[in-house]
Amino acid sequence: MKYIDMHIHLEDYSVTELDSDTIYVANSVDMYSYLTMRKKFSDCENVKICFGFHPAFVNNFTLTDNKLESLLIQNKFVGEIGLDFFWVEDKNTYNLQIKIFKKQLEIAKKYNLVPMIHTKGAEVEVLNLLKEYRINNALIHWYSGPINLIEDYLKLGSYFTIGPDLLKGAELYKYIPLERVFLETDNPTGIPWIMNVNSNNRGSDIRLMYEKYSSLMGLTDEYCKKLFYNNYLQLLRS
User: Fold this and answer.
1) Dist CA 130 CA 116 (whole Å)
2) Could you say which residues of the chain have pLDDT below 50?
3) Which of helix, strand or coil describes residue 221?
4) What is the pLDDT of residue 45?
């Protein structure tokens, strides 16, 4: 049974850095990141390369609808997509963010794909769009929004990834049922940012997350590996 890093960016990784005992769900943020990962990792069975256009990069979006669709359907997972009204300070991008997010949600719904969604500062807007497009299998990436919205996301069928702030005391894990949870590193920047230290073995950083979650939940590492793998299979079947 392998570990699963449910949200990572591998553009600046090499094949030799990867852990053979880990499945990496490798999120793109734009065309460059996608093509870079395709060039490096297309032959790696444990790397699941996904396409998505991140809200921070929408000013670089030039894809036709047909090209966008052809890229998104390469994998069951679509990401990283969503809205960002917090880190992205240029409010002039917000309408474009929404437009491009809607395009990607529409395709995800059409082909029954799993959208991996960035929600920072736009948790209500994302929730409303998931309802509008009747998305019942979204994966909410490193949620840090209002706790009171979590139940609404869960009612839609959404899953959540718990991010590296778990290592610093964040308590999202208390609110997500076992059958809807995953762990992620959001590396290469996630764990170094939270822990304020560079990782010497970043391809295996997801093990830190498993160890912490297992300890907090009173579960064994092997139980968590089976849990997350079963959740992964459930999403693939959704």
Assistant:
1) 12
2) none
3) helix
4) 96
